[in-house]
Design a protein that fits this description.
- It contains 3 helices and no strands.
- With 80 residues, it is mainly alpha-helical.
- Helix 2 runs antiparallel to helix 3.
- The longest helix has 24 residues, at 22-45.
- The two termini are 23 Å apart.
């Protein structure tokens, strides 16, 4: 999955006829910005610049992955 897959899937769920409150639009903008940063951090935690070392601890990745999941969940709540 590349950095934009989650964003594309989330946008596909949104009904274009639905209006967002200004507060929701602001929150979505912030959430998408955080999502982009979190997915980049997850890739970095996995050794984006080279092969992942054998036996690498995944604690940092799991923490970041949990943050990505929470962001996606919040975005879905707003768009549903």
């Amino acid at each position: 999955m590349n950095d934009n897959d989650a964003t594309v899937r989330l946008r596909a769920r949104w009904d274009g006829d639905t209006a967002l409150a200004p507060e929701q639009a602001i929150e979505l903008r912030e959430l998408y910005s955080e999502l982009q940063a979190a997915t980049a951090a997850a890739a970095e935690a996995l050794g984006k610049t080279g092969p992942m070392p054998a036996g690498m601890p995944l604690q940092r990745f799991r923490e970041i992955d949990s943050r990505v999941a929470a962001l996606v969940d919040r975005i879905r709540v707003i768009l549903d």
